Structures are given as C-alpha cells and as structure tokens.
Amino acid sequence: MLRRHPAVRDAAVIGAADRVNGEIPKAFVVTQGDVTAEELMAFVAAEVAPYKKVRQVVFVHEIPKSVSGKVLRRLLKDTQK
C-alpha cells in the first residue's frame, strides 16, 4: 500500500509494541521526494481498515533485505529497541 504513494521508493511495515493496544503497525519508509509522516498515514488510512492504519512512520535510507530480496523484519524490530 505505501509503495503506491508517488514519493515512496520502498517501505516495510512491522508490528510495534504499544502499551494500550498491544501492537500497532509501524512503517519504515525510503522516500524519493518530499513527504511527511502525516501524509503517508492519511494515504494508508483512506484505503485500509481502521485496525490496519499505520500509527508510526520512520524514515530510513534503506530497507534491510536478504539476498533473495525478502525484507528482514527482524532487523527492523531490532532497531526500535
């Protein structure tokens, strides 16, 4: 969903711990233009169910991937500790 936005080059979403909800969607985004976290959250919110809305956005230079191109979500989770 996030990759459809014209200012997003690459993105990955993980579940992040939250005190109230237990776990919330957290996006890691590589941009190719000017975009704010609020714009991206609104873009996703217009297309998905309420429980799937992205609640946090982190801008990164690169999404970690394996040799075969699979997103290494474990490494993304390690960055939030």
Structure write-up:
By secondary structure, the protein is of the alpha+beta class. The protein has one domain (2-79): ANL, C-terminal domain (GMP Synthetase, Chain A, domain 3). The chain is 20% helix and 31% strand. It is built from two helices and three strands. It has a three-stranded mixed sheet, with helices on both faces. The model has no long low-confidence stretch (mean pLDDT 93).
Class of secondary structure makeup = alpha+beta
Report how far apart the termini are: 26 Å
Uncertain spans, ≥5 residues at pLDDT below 50? none
Helix-strand topology string: EEHEH
CATH superfamily: ANL, C-terminal domain
Large-scale geometry: globular
CATH class category label? Alpha Beta
Please describe the biggest sheet, giving its number of strands, its sense, and whether it closes into a barrel: 3 strands, mixed
Mean pLDDT: 93
Strand order of the largest sheet: 1-2-3
**Radius of gyration, CA atoms, in whole angstroms:** 13 Å
The residue fraction in helices comes out at 10-25%
CATH architecture: 2-Layer Sandwich
Instruction: Quote the CATH topology.
Output: GMP Synthetase, Chain A, domain 3
InterPro entries: AMP-bd_C, AMP-bd_C_sf
Protein name: AMP-binding enzyme C-terminal domain-containing protein
GO molecular function, one term: CoA-ligase activity
Domain AMP-binding enzyme C-terminal: 2-70
